[in-house]
Amino acid sequence: MALAATIEPSGTKPKRRFEPRTIMLYGILGLAALYYLLPLYVMVVTSLKGMPEIRMGNIFAPPMEITFEPWVKAWSQACTGLYCHGIQIGFWNSVKILVPSVIVSIAIASVNGYALANWRFKGSEVFFTILLFGAFIPYQVMLYPLVMVLRELHLFSTLGGIVLVHTIFGMPINTLLFRNYFASLPPELFKAARVDGAGFWQIFLRIMLPMSLPIFVVGMIIQITGIWNDFLFGVIFAGTQNYPMTVQLNNVVNAVQGVKEYNVNMAATLLTGAVPLIVYFVSGRLFVRGIAAGAVKG
User: Fold this and answer.
1) Which of 1, 29, 53, 223 has its CA 20 to 30 A from that of 279?
2) Residue span of the signal peptide, if any (predicted)?
3) What's the per-residue H, E or C state across the chain?
4) 110 lies in a domain?
5) Is 254 in the same domain as 112?
6) Is 74 a member of any domain?
7) Using alpha carbons only, how large is the chain's radius of gyration in Å?
8) Rounded to 10 degrees, what is the CA torsion of 67, 70, 75, 77?
9) 187-205 per-position pLDDT tens digit
10) 54 near 263, Cβ under 8 Å?
11) What are phi and psi of 80, to 5 degrees?
């Protein structure tokens, strides 16, 4: 008993729950969250107020009388130029642009990454370097050549043209993500499948694809965020009949005629940003898993 009493406890010393370092960390995180959430709060409360209440000047006060009329007007009645049909037309144009662009770019990038990681051919590293280099070239440098190419293909000012542009510009970064993810998987899986006689597509569809949900979510979130929030490509390549939601929002907010309706502008802004926010909150855990599982590993 005396020997047992003299034995010192082993292991790390339990940390106190509220250490100064922990308090400082959470304090900084709280300030950062407040910094980013305060503008969102102002947008939400402003969109739920009437214009007489907004003119009273207290932008931080909650609405005395909640009204959803600004949301209805932003969606179906706000003027976006010559037409006053709200941003609903731009919303559906954005959907028509987004869905095929995401599907095609993710599909091609996943196959590219799989081939570059597991089926390396002569000059594959050079090809990958060139493809990756394209992700860092400023878009503005390519605008005029792209206009000429799409004009010759008779795709300028069409939905097909803007989908093609987003697909091309989305492939380099997504190819990098998929290549690094597939390279981080155990190579024994690939070798065992090759020994069993499986080919290129069998390995990809039956082995790699079922294990790749996290990285597909990462690529999907990146593409959805980039394409939905895009303004430059939409205003140049989509054409007046196919303007996406961001272009319509710009026309609503920067209208120079009539009364400035801040509540309608805030409602239109929130409607425009709703889709990326919903996608991220729904699939946020898978996004983190995909990043941690090799999305940024070399």
Assistant:
1) 29
2) none
3) CHHHHHCCCCCCCCCCCCCHHHHHHHHHHHHHHHHHHHHHHHHHHHHCCCHHHHCCCCCCCCCCCCCCHHHHHHHHCCCCCCCCCCCHHHHHHHHHHHHHHHHHHHHHHHHHHHHHHHCCCCCHHHHHHHHHHHHHCCHHHHHHHHHHHHHHCCCCCCHHHHHHHHHHHHHHHHHHHHHHHHHHCCHHHHHHHHHCCCCHHHHHHHHHHHHCHHHHHHHHHHHHHHHHCCCHHHHHHCCHHHCCHHHHHHHHHCCCCCCCCHHHHHHHHHHHHHHHHHHHHHHHHHHHHHHHHHHCCC
4) yes
5) yes
6) no
7) 26
8) 120
9) 888 888 888 888 888 888 8
10) yes
11) -115, 40
Q: Are 280 and 208 in contact (CB under 8 A)?
A: no
Q: Please measure the distance between the N-terminal and C-terminal CA atoms of the chain and give it in whole angstroms.
A: 56
182 lies in which domain range? 88-295
Inside any domain, residue 73: no
Checking if the pLDDT of 10 tops 70, the result is no
Segment 157-182 mean pLDDT: 89
Task: Mark whether 100 and 229 lie in a shared domain.
Answer: yes
* Residue closest to 133 by CA, chosen among 99, 186, 175, 88: 175
Q: Are 166 and 97 in contact (CB under 8 A)?
A: yes
Q: Which amino acid is residue 29, in one-letter code?
A: L
Amino acid at 272: T
Q: Torsion angle, CA of 255/163/237/274, rounded to 10 degrees?
A: 10
Residue 85 has phi, psi (to 5 degrees) of -110, 15
